[in-house]
Design a protein that fits this description.
With 294 residues, the chain is mostly beta strands. It has helices spanning 2-7, 9-21, 23-26, 177-181, 275-279; strands at 64-67, 73-75, 80-88, 92-99, 104-110, 139-140, 145-148, 161-167, 195-207, 211-222, 226-229, 235-238, 244-247, 250-252, 263-268, 271-272, 287-292. Helix content is 11%, strand content 33%.
């Protein structure tokens, strides 16, 4: 698959240069040449390995394949400008993200199916491959939905996945693996401002009267039907005085009886979605109900 990437390398470099000249008009941050901590590009469960450089029919693999469920939301790993690419038989429906840092990212094999089957009845347009209402050349924010995971191009009929590439300063591809490993994962995806609530199952890490830190083994989001397993980083929630605390059928207004390792289920208060909430920033989620004990 390297052939189509090589063919368009010069085009990408020229476009990156033009974006740099227009950066101040777009309100972009100055380009640093340093790849920032990324938002993980898929808002859902995926599996992946460091398959960068592995032999492929078209040459060494230039990215990492993130295997997931078809039509899972794909998001911008950093703020920048996007360009649709729709004419490569190998890449299928593809998107370039020219990040504010100067890094270029490629999103390859986006969805082209109208159903959950491999019908190939869709085209590379917003609402099928790209996020609804997204326009070619749009400026996007980190974490904003930009597309849907799929199997277009020479991945047709195979396992749905996102082929993701990282090009520092718009140059040659480097392995995305370390950047993916350190990326911030969205807990769920929802349109900013729309209501959501979460159910978090896990164990207590620590607790005070006003905060609860949980090692989450299962996250479920409503109404977006999100599901994410085994968060690597503990999640800290605010526990307001209005929250209901239940432990072994006893209701108490206090959390001080919670102990490390104790099983817990937390329901968050319904709230409008924000990027901080989707990233699980400390204190961004408020508990409505805390159920302690087995």
């Amino acid at each position: 698959m390297s052939r189509y990437r090589t063919r368009h390398a010069a085009r990408g470099a020229l476009l990156l240069l033009s974006l740099g000249l227009a950066g101040s008009a777009l309100g972009a941050n100055p380009k640093t040449g340093v790849i920032p901590t990324l938002i993980f590009p898929v808002a859902g469960d995926v599996t992946y390995v460091d398959d960068f450089g592995q032999a492929r029919p078209g040459g060494p693999h230039q990215g990492n394949d993130l295997m997931g469920v078809k039509k899972t939301p794909v998001v911008a790993v950093e703020s920048g400008k996007i360009t649709f690419w729709t004419t490569s038989a190998n890449a299928g429906c593809m998107l370039y993200l020219y990040g504010d840092s100067g890094t270029m990212y490629e999103y390859i094999h986006l969805n082209n199916d109208l159903t959950m089957k491999n019908d190939n009845r869709g085209t590379c347009v917003a609402g099928v491959s790209y996020a609804k209402a997204l326009k070619d050349g749009s400026r996007v924010q980190a974490g904003q939905m930009i597309g849907y995971l799929g199997d277009s191009g020479d991945a047709n009929g195979g396992a749905s996945h996102l082929h993701f590439e990282v090009h520092p300063n718009g140059g040659a591809a480097v392995s995305p693996f370390s950047y993916l490993q350190s990326a911030q994962r969205l807990l769920f995806f929802a349109k900013v401002g729309t209501p959501f609530t979460l159910a978090l199952t896990g164990t207590v890490v620590s607790a005070t009267d006003t905060t609860l830190t949980v090692q989450v083994s299962l996250l479920q989001g409503f109404p977006m039907n999100a599901k994410l397993k085994s968060l690597t980083k503990p999640l800290t929630l605010t526990v307001p005085s209005t929250a209901v605390i239940q432990q072994k059928s006893v209701t108490s207004p206090r959390l001080l009886t919670a102990y490390e390792g104790e099983p817990v289920v937390v329901w968050t208060q319904p709230a409008p979605a924000t990027m901080k909430a989707m990233l699980g920033a400390d204190g961004a989620l408020n508990a409505a109900l805390v159920q302690l004990g087995g």
